[in-house]
Amino acid sequence: MPDYKTLYITMVRKMEKAINILIEAQRKCEELYISTQDPQIKIINDNADNLDEPPN
Fold first, then answer.
1. Greatest CA separation found in the chain?
2. Structural domain contains residue 4
3. In-domain check, residue 1
4. Distance CA 11, CA 9 (A)
5. CA distances (Å), origin 4, targets 11, 15, 32
6. Residue at 12 is within a domain
7. pTM score above 0.90
8. What burial class does residue 18 get, using C-beta atoms within 10 Å of its C-beta: 0-12 exposed, 13-18 middle, 19+ buried?
9. Long-range residue pairs from 18-23, CB within 8 A, at least 24 positions apart, any chain
10. Model confidence pLDDT, tens digit, residues 17-56
């Protein structure tokens, strides 16, 4: 008969390790995102050819 307590404890410990790996990866990605400079945003007016026409 399988030792279900050992099976369960092993599974839970491995899942906890996997979750902690994912949490650490998320934290690292968030730090990278926060530490990067904001991109330069350039607004392009695609209606520049239709300046004489009123908007709909």
1. 85
2. yes
3. yes
4. 5
5. 10, 16, 42
6. yes
7. no
8. exposed
9. none
10. 999 999 999 999 999 999 998 888 888 887 656 656 666 6
The helix (run of H) or strand (run of E) holding residue 20 is helix 4-35
What's the token pair of residue 48? 């520049």
In a domain, 27, yes or no: yes
Amino acid at 26: Q
Distance (Å, whole) CA 1 – CA 10? 17
Structural domain range at position 17: 1-33
**Structural domain count of the chain:** 1
| One-letter amino acid for residue 40 of the chain | Q
